[in-house]
Amino acid sequence: MILGANSYGQLAQGFKSEQCPIPTEVCTDTDPASIVSIVGGGGHTMILDKHGRLFGCGGNSKGQLGVEGKTEVLSFERVTSLGDYTIESVACSWDSTFAITRCGRFFVWGSNTYGQLGIPKHEVTFSPTPIEVPLPTIQHVSSGLRHSAMVTNEGCVVVCGTSRKGALVPGLPNIQKVVCGQHHTIAQSVDGRVFVWGDNKHGQLGLDPLTHPYVYTPLELQELIAAPDNEVFTGWTHTAILTENGDVMSWGWNEHGNCGTGSLENITTPAVLDSLRKTILIGAGAGHSFAVIESDY
Questions:
Q1: What is the mean pLDDT of the chain?
Q2: Cα separation of 266 and 9, whole Å?
Q3: Contacts with 118 (C-beta within 8 Å, 6 or more apart), sequence order
Q4: Which of 14, 38, 63, 164 has the most other CB atoms within 10 Å of its CB?
Q5: Nearest Cα to 104, choosing from 72, 54, 61, 139?
Q6: Whole-prediction pTM value?
Q7: Please, are residues 127 and 112 in contact by the beta-carbon 8 Å criterion?
Q8: What angle do CA 22, 63, 94 make, to 5 degrees?
Q9: CA–CA gap between residue 158 and residue 179 (Å, rounded)
Q10: How sure is the predictor about 208, in pLDDT bands with cuts at 50, 70 and 90?
Q11: Nearest to residue 64, comparing CAs of 16, 36, 99, 97?
Q12: Beta pairing, strands 214-225 & 193-199
């Protein structure tokens, strides 16, 4: 089921519309039960199935769908430009897309206006054709508005794009996951430690924005240990984590109640959500959050 903004055809309904407020079923060339990942950018959507096939729809003005000769695609179309590669994971920024193959190769396409593809922007401004980036084997990738961050198999963070607000800071060891918000980045180490850097206008780093409006060197959020299964998520300007003891904590921009604290005030330090216990899975969108709890709670 799919819903929300559809101004670029990103809902794969075969037509464009300003919004679709009711969950609607869409057709794809793959069995819905085989879909393992759905990710969205500013106006495009990518789905990945268990066979490693990638499909996309929506805006394609910068080639972010990996499809040549079309400015938009109104229903899911397979990304055949990846050839026979089997895709393991996919991520989207505003108008760029990133894919990691099961053999560890890393491909990028779409806009590179800010160097967010990891390629010098004077060489490639955008590409509708996937380009392989020669990096050490990548295990995880995330992208914000104009920056991207990757984690290598050795646990090192590789970053690219704009650093105007401190979003890009390399050099962290033993990292297993990194997540990017609009202009901020959060990294989780193998042992659950959480490091933050970048823009902190709304407290999205879990720090007081009056004393830390921007953070240019990674800071560890002390006494905060995330669950071992990569349970750190960030929206556009808010963050949520599932701790090792099963608590959900959130902080940052809260205009729509997306931090789940019961108010609309921004949360500048990590807050435990007492209404969520026995949580097994969490996630975050640009301005919303969600959680799955045990059925007997």
A1: 86
A2: 33
A3: 108, 133, 135, 148, 150, 158, 160
A4: 63
A5: 139
A6: 0.84
A7: yes
A8: 55
A9: 12
A10: very high
A11: 97
A12: antiparallel
Give the model's confidence band at 252: pLDDT under 50 very low, under 70 low, under 90 confident, else very high: very high
Place of tokens 């970048």: 198
Residue 296 predicted with pLDDT over 70: no
Instruction: Give me the phi and psi of 81, to 5 degrees please.
Output: -70, -10
CB 254 within 8 A of CB 263: yes
**pLDDT classification of 184: cutoffs 50, 70, 90:** very high
Structure tokens at 9: 């055809």
How far apart are alpha carbons 56 and 81 in whole angstroms? 12
* Cα–Cα distance measured from residue 236 to residue 248, given in angstroms and rounded to the nearest whole number: 18
Domains by residue range for the chain, with CATH? 1-134 (2.130.10.30), 146-297 (2.130.10.30)
CB atoms within 10 A of CB 295: 7
Instruction: Report the distance separating Cα 83 and Cα 78, nearest Å.
Output: 11
- Which one, of 172, 250, 183, lies nearest residue 213 by Cα? 183
